[in-house]
Design goal:
Bound molecules: 6-phosphogluconic acid
Distance between the termini: 21 Å
Number of strands: 11
Oligomer: single chain
Helix content: 25-40%
Length: 242
Amino acid sequence: MEPRVHIAQDEPALFQACAERLVSVAAESIARHGGFHWAVAGGATPQGLYRLLASPSFRDRVDWSLVHIWFGDERCVPPEDAQSNFRMVREALLDAVSVPPAQVHRVQGELPPEAAASDYADALRRHLPEADKVPQFDLVLLGSGPDGHIASLFPGTDALRKRRPAAAVYVPKLESWRISITLPLINTACHVILLLSGAKKADLVRHVFRHSADTNPLPVQMIRPSGELEWFLDDEAARHIT
Ligand code: 6PG
């Protein structure tokens, strides 16, 4: 299935378009199997999207009681650490909507990395439906760094070859451990949304859209879901492809 590309004039319009799409994917998932398993993205970009979903204009358009929040990746820090993706998502979204606590599947970043990865992989296998024996998300929301990493799957790391649902990843350039879902989960998802904004991502977007058949693909180019892939870009991130 060819990826669909949505280009918004600025970041507020980007979050509005992505929020509308997320609401429709959630409704479709709930209608299909009675729930919505969503792997959220970390980092800075999606915070505006989460705050919009938590606002009065969107908050009541999702049946949060049927949503399961998962994390595409997490830093190996305690949940209240400033670096924690859980803390960021809690503050930007979860504190404002009523996802049942048992349906917020936090990565236990405070544990030793291998233990955290193993616990998270067990939870993914326990709660998610499967497709070809791989836990299947309804939606994986991802950002990408200028180097083309997704979640915590960085170029040239062996995490890109892991088959288990979640892996402990040491990131040399960050000198830190992370827990990440792996490529099989991303590519088994019903929907994948890539959300990129800002001029810093423009070169990466040009590389991806100009070199679709790279012999040495970046992680973001390894996303080939059996489901639907959609790019949500603002004008600045898309300036080399429009
Ligand atoms: C993280 C994210 C990471 C992020 C990219 C883009 O934990 O940081 O999962 O993969 O999506 O690094 O980050 P920005 O949105 O901050 O550019």
